[in-house]
Design a protein that fits this description.
This protein is α+β, with helices and mostly antiparallel strands. The protein is built from 7 helices and 14 strands. The strands form 2 sheets. Strands 6, 7, 8, 9, 10, 11, 12, 13 and 14 form a 9-stranded mixed sheet that branches. The N and C termini lie far apart (48 Å). The structure holds adenosine-5'-diphosphate and manganese (II) ion (MN) (3 copies).
């Protein structure tokens, strides 16, 4: 049924924060299942994934999505990166999560990730004046009106694209700093939420191209008295979602309190600029949990406390985090 444009998407070896890469392969359609797609290769010396002398890396398709931009029959293909000899590449953080999530599949872990990001128009946040600053924060969060929000047309296009791709996007909102927005993915399982978050990020950058606007996941895009950008990660296991779950959530918080540094190490680079203890964050050097507390590391939502079961919100991950690593850390600490 004709030629299909398959956009192979992978995560590169850029440090400290990896970047998305992609290229197009034309395949014979229709493609209904990821197993129909061939492996592919790329030049790892251009993505900080190999030396020039031995530069081939392998791309293995792991999940597919409808391509909302090219439309009908075309697909987006999430890939894992392997070395030429078939071993897992060191930049491939998905492989470890794949094994761990299988090991703890009986726990039925669910994740909902809130992705905050900031639009930039050249060197300044979208909608900001050429010189100086907009009015101080206060009216922008969930605001309406051309003096309050900037970039809504892009945000709406992105939301529509995520829905067309069948991503489990669950909402969007304008954020506290003007030009800053959020979308949420989930709740779904660890591999699903992570693949979908990366695909949603790819779509955001790609749609931004059409507007000449970039989106950054920098955790503190503007220094000073302006909110940073995080990726709050909401987590539950089956037993947390059932009667008596609050006890399980509290014991998870206790386990997390003993592994704070290990978690911070994989929660995104430059996160110390954001986790200051101000702007609805807890200091990076403290660990606290509490009901409805947006100044804590872990918030137990009010609804969860009232019901006696539900989920917890880890407020520490920064906007630029790798969801494969964050999901791994949470399952590893809480389920073990
Ligand atoms: P906030 O009040 O922190 O801004 P949001 O509404 O932006 O909260 O995000 C809450 C997230 O929690 C959503 O992504 C949602 O999918 C997720 N979520 C809801 N229930 C669960 C659950 N049981 N387990 C994990 N995540 C959940
Ligand atoms: Mn939110
Ligand atoms: Mn938010
Ligand atoms: Mn939140």
């Amino acid at each position: 049924m004709g030629k299909v444009k398959a956009e192979y998407i992978w995560i590169d070896g850029h440090t400290p924060t990896s970047k998305l890469r992609s290229k197009t392969k034309i395949v014979n359609g229709p493609i209904k299942n990821v197993d129909q797609l061939p492996d592919w290769g790329f030049d790892g010396s251009s993505t900080q994934q190999a030396e020039g002398s031995d530069s081939d890396c392998l791309l293995k398709p792991v999940s597919i999505f409808k391509d909302p931009i090219r439309g009908e029959n075309h697909i987006l293909v999430m890939c894992e990166v392997f070395n030429a000899d078939g071993s897992v590449h060191k930049s491939n953080s998905r492989a470890a999560l794949r094994k761990l999530s299988e090991k703890f599949s009986v726990e039925e872990c669910w994740f909902g990730i809130e992705q905050e990001y900031t639009f930039f128009d050249g060197i300044k946040p979208l909608g900001w004046p050429d010189n100086g600053f907009p009015a101080p924060q206060g009216g922008y969060y969930c605001g309406v009106g051309s003096d309050e929000v900037y970039g809504r047309d892009i945000v709406e296009d992105h939301l529509e694209a995520c829905l067309l791709a069948d991503l489990e996007i669950s909402g969007i909102n304008a954020e506290v700093m003007p030009g800053q927005w959020e979308f949420q993915v989930g709740p779904v399982g660890p591999l699903e939420v992570s693949d979908q978050l990366w695909i949603a990020r790819w779509l955001l950058y790609r749609i931004g191209e059409d507007y000449g606007v970039s989106a950054t996941l920098d955790p503190k895009p503007v220094k000073g008295d302006w909110n940073g950008a995080g990726a709050h990660t909401n987590f539950s296991t089956k037993s947390m979602r059932e009667k008596g779950g609050l006890k399980v959530i509290e014991s998870a918080c206790e386990k997390l309190s003993k592994k704070h540094d290990e978690h911070i190490a994989v929660y995104g680079s430059n996160n110390e600029e954001r986790l200051t203890g101000l702007h609805e964050t807890c200091s990076i050097s403290d660990f606290r949990y509490g009901v409805s507390d947006r100044g804590a590391s872990i918030r137990i939502p009010m609804g969860t406390a009232n019901d006696g079961f539900g989920y917890l919100e880890d407020r520490r991950p920064s906007a630029n985090m790798d969801p494969y690593k964050v999901c791994f850390a949470l399952i590893d600490t809480i389920c073990n």
